[in-house]
Amino acid sequence: MPKLTHKYLLAITFQQAGQLVRDEGGLFGRVRLKVDGTVSIPFYYRYRYGGKLHDISCGTWPVDSLAQIRAKRDEARGATAAGIDPATRKKVNRIEMQEAMLSKIAQTNAQREAQLTVADLFDLWIVNGVKRKDGNADLKRRFTADVLPSIGGVAISELSEHDLREVLRTLVMRDANRSAVMMLHSLKQMLGWAQKRQPWRRLLSEGNPVDLIDIRTIVSAAYDMNKVRERVLSAAEIRELQDIFKRMRVEYATAPDRRVAAQPLEIATECAIWIMLGTMCRVGELSMARWEHVDFDLAEWFIPRENVKDRVGNQTVHLSAFVMTQFRRLHECTSESVWCFPSRDDTKHINARVITKQISDRQTSLKHGRDGGPRAVMTHRCQDDRLVLQSGKNGAWTAHDLRRTGATLMQSLGVTLDVIDRCQNHVLAGSKVRRHYLHYDYSREKMEAWTLLGKRFQEILDHQKSEEPDAV
């Protein structure tokens, strides 16, 4: 049989489609016509094994050269001579190649997984693993400030309890014990989520390091784990607060050069402080308030459910004369906006932290930096001690302390605890059946309670009971 040549194959035309071409050593192929008008020839080697004839592919010309096709034929012929079925051998080789490839892919994936860090886990968890009312804004802020800078680059497979403990101790160093407790809860939530999912579960095969942390060994010795914040402004401090606001405005108005003089607290923030005292509302609820929900004729402020913490339910707040005065002052400042507290560009309401920060920034000496030392100077932020009350002997006060102060004062006026809870829009304890069937809204009792509270605050500010220097 004549030996095929490359020149002979090149001379084959589409008119020879279907013809059989043969080469020495049992190699043959059939001419095929391709869609583009060219030809190709799949070649096979025919051999006898187990008493039967078999064909095994040796390649396709011109994708494979004639030399490559013959080499595969020779390999198959050698296997046959050795008593091995070439087709079986080819199948085994293919399986071995697939296994080798899968092993390499697995090795590559393992190497990639081993490089996954705490920051990678956080990025995934914050999108798919947690959903809080603020859109996870507070979580992002806390992790960005206190976790990711120190352990964000640590591989999950190498994350240890010591890494997590160091993050929490840094918080405690700056006297942020409660923040440390809250951060531990968030870390538990994140790593607990990871432990149920791949590839994080494989990376935590040695166990979840957060389970080894006892927060009681980390917080300050003086910190009571079971104790909630108890800061309540006294009557003297409430009067002092009024004097501070007046003094700020007088000092600024009479300053020789207002360009360098310390500006007073914004009127909107001052109004917010008095409103929070007089209504016991949350700072977030007030920050999101809209003027359409404030009815000056009925002396009511409606708080829609979506603005309430945990979306407990709508709340209609009766506005005492004391609170009405503050809402009217606020209306003079922001009535052109739909928001009671508009953002600078008036596209939305302010963030709740705006009011919180304005109060905190004016008690700088009572605050700590992230390293536990004095708070660092921040650009574009007012930092002084003008809102420190009673020379700081009772510690710093916060926006949420105003809510507690109002509730405590309401309690001292003889208002029942049930009514106080409803004025604060708390989830009421007790049987779910009771909450399901008893729907009296206590509107009259709440109105009376808010009226009493407003009168008492007005008395305090008018010095009508100044003989009570420290009692609320």
UniProtKB/TrEMBL annotation:
Residues 228-451 form the Tyr recombinase domain. Pfam families: Arm-DNA-bind_3, Phage_integrase. PROSITE patterns: TYR_RECOMBINASE. The keyword DNA-binding applies. Keywords: DNA integration, DNA recombination, DNA-binding. PANTHER family: PROPHAGE INTEGRASE, PROPHAGE INTEGRASE INTS-RELATED. Belongs to the 'phage' integrase family. This is Tyrosine-type recombinase/integrase. It comes from Duganella aceris.
